[in-house]
Amino acid sequence: MTLYIVGFGGGSHEGMTIEAENAILSSDIIVGYTVYADLMKEIFPEKEFFSTPMMQERERVRYALEKACECTVSLICSGDSTVYGMAGLAYQMSDGYPQVKIVPVAGVTAALSGNAVLGAPLTHDFAVISLSDLLTPYEKIECRLRCASEADFTIVLYNPSSKKRSDYLKKACEIMLQYKNEDTVCGYVRNIGRKEEESRILTLGELKDCCVDMFTTVFVGNSQTRIINGKMVTPRGYRDV
Amino acid sequence: MTLYIVGFGGGSHEGMTIEAENAILSSDIIVGYTVYADLMKEIFPEKEFFSTPMMQERERVRYALEKACECTVSLICSGDSTVYGMAGLAYQMSDGYPQVKIVPVAGVTAALSGNAVLGAPLTHDFAVISLSDLLTPYEKIECRLRCASEADFTIVLYNPSSKKRSDYLKKACEIMLQYKNEDTVCGYVRNIGRKEEESRILTLGELKDCCVDMFTTVFVGNSQTRIINGKMVTPRGYRDV
What we know:
2 copies of one chain form a homodimer. Chain A is about 30% helix and about 25% strand. With about 240 residues, chain A is an alpha/beta fold. In chain A, the strands form 3 sheets. Chain A has a 5-stranded parallel beta sheet with strand order 3-2-4-1-5, with helices on both faces. The longest helix of chain A is centred in the middle third of the chain and has 13 residues, at about 140-150. The model of chain A has no long low-confidence stretch (mean pLDDT about 95). The interface between A and B is large, with 72 and 72 residues.
């Protein structure tokens, strides 16, 4: 049977693709992290859900693969199905389930939905970096921050903070400030596409001393990014005036 | 009035978000590049369209801003509304149109839709780079390729080729090969989400000698990317087995 790995976007019905909606509607059971399952229950109250708490990704994927041996399943992820999502893990764990067809359904990841809230910071080349060092050595994250800053990418930071990592955004800003000007236009969006959505545009110098939580996505402009009528806008290139 | 800048994804109805569909349905006129307007005409045959050929982006945005003084307009972009799209330019040209409210509508850019076709290459940190040097000095592109490779990002290449730049992908691969192994898992997808969609998974060494066209999006894995059951999969981190 089919196991859809569905990226549902920010969490509103409007932010989903029609393909994602169709996948969920055609599934016998929807599997996901409790918070995301609750969001989707509001949109699809007639569907059957199975949810597990945070950090139990492997158990969730295993359950979805088992279920997909007998019926059609959607494993749901916020944003995209792959970007810091579950599709990769599903493929990695798919040995032993040859009868299950894995179908990733792309969704609007926070880099894109947050971008639309702030204006147009991601017009040109960009790099996406997670500050979580749960599965990645911190030195690798630091190297990526350095290299992306040196090459003047617009940078999107996922997982900028958590209880255990409350100073990670500050440390990241200090690294970026070695290459980027402290006046670099930055922005962040919290709870993208949800009722409590909030956003702010500020400088890299100000961002360094900001407290953000794990529901926040942070945008650090390139050298050309500017504020136009209160929006964060990156031009299409370096010759584009 | 409102000027929606709508990213419609790959071009199929399924690949659009519900928000994008609603924006188009609520608009009095849809403005876009001829090829994209033709794609949307198939889905929304009852709507009024205005299209201009390639390269006439400024004329198109000017027309959309003028029209939006009197009615609701959607300016359409393939993929996302901002990523190598028109939202930034619309903000840049919006002086003199204080009565027009610009609303970017995020969409599934080729990095995400192509990712879902290939498997899950973008599970972890990634960089998006356009090889077009129309508005960006070639040295800047080269610097980004170097820095992104050095930091072991998965790299997505947009605009990998054109008639005038037929050797750019080869040159890009040669730069990446200075940092990445020639066995690095790569993939490309052509005409994502359209009838003629085709994809291939290959090594970086093979990619160097490949001919691709401007409708192709190229994915270059990080050091952990592997092939699982014919799919291109990047694990969630460096400690994730």
